[in-house]
Specification:
- This protein is mainly alpha-helical.
- It has three helices and two strands; from the N terminus they run ββααα.
- It has helices spanning about 20-35, 35-40, 45-65; strands at about 5, 15.
- The longest helix is centred in the C-terminal third of the chain and has 21 residues, at about 45-65.
């Protein structure tokens, strides 16, 4: 199962079988610690953040496959 840390602070790590499941698991952390991302007030657009998140998840999948 892919493991991933928060792409904005690295403070938490979660495991999830799908990208959507990872988003759901990280949502409470983002609501509590990165509300600007959720509210669309971050310097980067949400689409940019989602692209970064997707890339990080895909890398976690690739890393799991190598193990």
């Amino acid at each position: 199962m892919p493991r991933m840390v928060c792409i904005d602070c690295g403070a938490v790590e979660y495991e999830a079988d799908t990208l959507h499941a990872m988003l759901v698991k990280m949502m409470p952390h983002y609501l509590a610690h990165h509300h600007d991302v959720i509210a669309g007030e971050a310097p980067q657009p949400r689409e940019t953040w989602m692209a970064r998140f997707t890339a990080a998840y895909r890398e976690a999948e690739a890393e799991e496959a190598r193990v």
